[in-house]
């Protein structure tokens, strides 16, 4: 499911907002503007203006900036988001401690079932791709697996699926840190979805009862150092090109870099370098479907950052850590074209979150 052309989108549709909005900006012109690689850049948005806004008009300005970013690029950098640097650094530290556990301990926590989507995923088990063909994905995985390991964590109170925690003695504070971070990210997600609702001319609280069950996935990622030669093989990346599945992904990266985002017009991948203090946020497939492709779910990948020469013939790509919080609507939420995005016609059949996400996850794991 690659990029879908924005020119087909139903934009502001009904409600008579089209005229009013076209006086403040022309979406078609902006969409034209981002066609060149030079003009395709991820906007940096100061979220404190939304969080502490004194008036609805002030909120609206930031909400419009956020929605514009998701329409044109599908990615934004969020600054002054309210999550402290200490919290992020502490979570990174606990993540690093987890990945340093012996393989034997991690293997006991292995990811087993796409419906659970919880547990430890060792290097080579996942191959993210846009292909929906199981055989093709299996062939890709055999030839060029993603070079990363991850730990997947869901809501801890799920009646059916249990998180797979390491022993407290082996990873002190890991569980508590991750559960707190899960809640913190959920809260931020709720705020950003309020901004998106405003920017899409919906009631600010429109998404509230459709996203409150915390059907999310906290993914700790560890990209070990790798010999550059290995990453240069055909089709090989730290994480292959893909779109995410849910509403939004909150991505925290360390200072190493390697994330790239595809300009859908030119198909060129462009770096999304880490900017200290910011969170990279991208729209996922379910938000794109919900909005009838008004908001983009943009392809991205993780490639090798500049390597360090370790001998005359060999260079090593440094280790990298990131944390992705995949936000999802409630499992049973009906994702059907939003009332303000209908335009001429709805492009997608309604789907529930669970159907869509479990389908994608089943295909990408071995
Ligand atoms: O590690 C990163 O920077 C991105 C990871 C990613 O895109 C994903 O896990 O979906
Ligand atoms: Fe992703």
Quantity of strands, as a count: 17
Uncertain residue ranges: 1-32
The major β-sheet equals: 8 strands, mixed
Can you give the mean pLDDT?
85
Oligomer type: single chain
SS-based class: alpha+beta
- The top-level CATH class is Mainly Beta
Count of the separate structural domains:
1
What share of the residues does DSSP label as strand, in percent? 15-25%
Lateral strand order in the biggest sheet = 1-2-11-8-15-5-4-3
The CATH architecture designation is Sandwich
Element pattern in H and E: HHEHHEHHEHEHHEEHEEEEEHEEEEEEH
| Bound small molecules, deduplicated | 2-oxoglutaric acid, fe (ii) ion
Question: How many helices does DSSP assign?
Answer: 12
Terminal Cα span: 20 Å
Rg on CA atoms, Å: 20 Å
InterPro entries: DIOX_N (IPR026992), IPNS-like_FE2OG_OXY (IPR044861), IPNS-like_sf (IPR027443), Oxoglu/Fe-dep_dioxygenase_dom (IPR005123)
Organism: Postia placenta MAD-698-R-SB12
Family: Belongs to the iron/ascorbate-dependent oxidoreductase family.
GO molecular function, one term: metal ion binding
What is the topological layout?
Layout lengths: L16 H8 L2 H7 L10 E3 L1 H4 L4 H17 L2 E5 L5 H15 L3 H5 L11 E3 L12 H10 L5 E5 L20 H26 L8 H4 L5 E7 L2 E2 H4 L7 E4 L5 E6 L5 E4 L6 E3 L7 E5 L1 H6 L9 E3 L5 E2 L5 E3 L2 E8 L6 E2 L15 E2 H12 L2
Parallel strand pairs: 1-2
Antiparallel strand pairs: 2-11, 3-4, 4-5, 5-15, 6-14, 7-12, 8-11, 8-15, 9-10, 9-12, 13-14, 16-17
Helix pairs in contact: 4-8, 5-8
């Amino acid at each position: 499911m690659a990029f879908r052309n924005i020119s087909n989108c139903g934009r502001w549709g009904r409600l008579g907002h089209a005229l009013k909005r076209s006086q403040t900006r022309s979406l078609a012109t902006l969409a034209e503007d981002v066609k060149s690689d030079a003009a395709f850049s991820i906007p940096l948005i100061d979220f404190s203006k939304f969080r502490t806004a004194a008036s609805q008009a002030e909120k609206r300005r930031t909400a419009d900036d956020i929605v514009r970013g998701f329409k044109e690029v599908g990615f934004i950098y969020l600054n002054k988001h309210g999550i402290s640097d200490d919290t992020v650094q502490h979570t990174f530290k606990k993540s690093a401690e987890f990945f340093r556990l012996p393989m034997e301990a991690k293997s006991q926590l292995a990811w087993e079932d796409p419906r659970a989507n919880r547990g430890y995923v060792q290097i080579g088990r996942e191959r993210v791709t846009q292909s929906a063909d199981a055989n093709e994905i299996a062939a890709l995985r055999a030839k060029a697996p993603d070079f990363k390991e991850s730990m997947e964590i869901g809501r801890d109170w799920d009646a059916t699926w249990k998180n797979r925690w390491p022993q407290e003695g082996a990873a002190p504070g890991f569980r508590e840190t991750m559960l707190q971070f899960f809640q913190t990210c959920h809260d931020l997600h709720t705020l950003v979805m309020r901004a998106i609702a405003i920017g899409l001319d919906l009631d600010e609280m429109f998404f509230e009862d459709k996203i409150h069950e915390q059907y999310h996935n906290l993914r700790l990622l560890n990209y070990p150092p790798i010999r550059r030669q290995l990453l240069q093989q055909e089709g090989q990346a730290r994480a292959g090109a893909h779109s995410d599945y849910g509403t939004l992904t909150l991505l925290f990266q360390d200072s190493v870099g390697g994330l790239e985002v595809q300009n859908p017009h030119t198909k060129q991948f462009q770096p999304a370098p880490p900017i200290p203090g910011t969170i990279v946020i991208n729209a996922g497939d379910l938000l794109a479907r919900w909005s009838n492709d008004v908001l983009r779910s943009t392809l991205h990948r993780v490639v090798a950052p500049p390597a360090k020469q370790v001998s005359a013939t060999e260079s090593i790509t440094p280790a990298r850590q990131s944390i992705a919080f995949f936000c999802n609507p409630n499992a049973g939420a009906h994702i059907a074209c939003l009332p303000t995005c209908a335009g001429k016609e709805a492009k997608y059949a309604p789907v529930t979150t669970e159907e869509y996400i479990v389908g994608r996850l089943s295909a990408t794991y071995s």
